[in-house]
Amino acid sequence: MGSRLYSIVIDSRNPSSLARFWAEVLDFKVVYEEEGSEVVVARDDSTYPGLIFVPVPEPKAVKNRLHIDLNPHDRDVEVERLIGLGAKRVDVGQGPEVTWVVLADPEGNEFCVLRPRDGGV
Amino acid sequence: MGSRLYSIVIDSRNPSSLARFWAEVLDFKVVYEEEGSEVVVARDDSTYPGLIFVPVPEPKAVKNRLHIDLNPHDRDVEVERLIGLGAKRVDVGQGPEVTWVVLADPEGNEFCVLRPRDGGV
To answer: A67: nearest CA in chain B?
Structure first.
């Protein structure tokens, strides 16, 4: 019997601000927040993983070793929505041939917007 | 309407090996594998996010900006199981007071084993 994948924790310079960005991205809500401390966003209390943003003093330094892939309803429409929320296009060497779009959140964390697909991973 | 949190992608020196470690951790299975390419582990085809391990040439360099929190059935029993699978205890400055245990996977990616809890995040 394994452990449950419970949450994805993201080091952040500004947890409140970054949590609100990701809540908009995923249509999650802020379910826990304490001044100067961690902020939790999730779809609801029984769905996980949610995202937890924890304050750290240091900025992001290198390409993240872990990143999130998003499955949108329409890739290009979603990319424009996310750029409107504060995401930026970034080049991590993905080249012109790939079917996904690489963006970074307002603190520079890379993530990918896939072509829509059904099913699981 | 937001995007779905579809997968967590993990840069890896040895995707096959690291995927097998995490499949054991989460009781997931390998659902896709191609020689020298990405490896996907998930609970089943309709549950997400799964984990995707993609090959990269560079080793992990700094403390990860994103990490996974695990919800076990018994924290200390689970920590011993995970160490048996190849995890190691690491010090990221968490101090002696915290209720979770910080481990690293065989490629050094930090993750936390929480005290058991019900519900969502």
So the answer is: B9
Which residues constitute the domain of residue B66? 61-121
**Per the structure, how many domains does chain A have?**
2
Q: Say how far apart CA A48 and CA A51 lie, in whole Å.
A: 9
- Residue B54 in any domain: the answer is yes
Contact check, Cβ <8 Å, B2/A10: no
The token pair that represents B23 in the structure block: 């499949």
**Are B38 and A103 a contacting pair, CB within 8 Å?**
no
Amino acid B22: pLDDT: 97
Mean pLDDT, consecutive 10-residue stretches, chain A (121 aa), reads 90 96 95 88 82 95 96 95 98 92 98 84 52
- The CATH number of whichever domain residue A17 belongs to comes to 3.10.180.10
B81 assigned to some structural domain: yes
User: Cβ B8–A68 below 8 Å, yes or no?
Assistant: yes
Residue B90 within any structural domain of the chain: yes
Interface size A-B, in CB pairs within 8 Å, comes to 167
| Mutation for A interface: B66, B78, B109, most A CBs within 10 A | B66
pLDDT reported for residue B117: 84
d(CA B27, CA B49): 14
Is A1 a domain residue?
A: no
Q: Looking at the structure, tell me whether residues B39 and B83 fall in a common domain.
A: no
Can you tell me the distance from the alpha carbon of A73 to that of B121, in angstroms, rounded to the nearest whole number?
A: 25
